[in-house]
């Protein structure tokens, strides 16, 4: 506001500027956490009555004992038990959809 009015910012304000990047990074991190929590809640709520159903999915990535899949027909990305091959199209069975914990979990349908 001071600059817009053609004035110099106060010394206190200028002294606080070095703290701004860290504060902005913290704000961005918290924003991402809230956005992820909202998405997780929506996904769990949409799928809550469909536990046991089989869905077509694509494997995004894989770790030692679990993978991440994205459903083909719904905008849902979630963990899937077992190591699958990234890029592979698979059928997965919904094993958990709990809005209270914002948890969605799948398992390979062939298991």
TrEMBL record:
Pfam families listed in its UniProt record: RNase_II_C_S1 (PF18614)
Signal peptide bounds: none
Listed InterPro entries: NA-bd_OB-fold, RNase_II_C_S1
Domain named RNase II-type exonuclease C-terminal S1: residues: 53-109
Coiled-coil regions listed: none
Matches recorded under SUPFAM superfamilies: Nucleic acid-binding proteins
Protein name per its UniProtKB record: Ribonuclease II
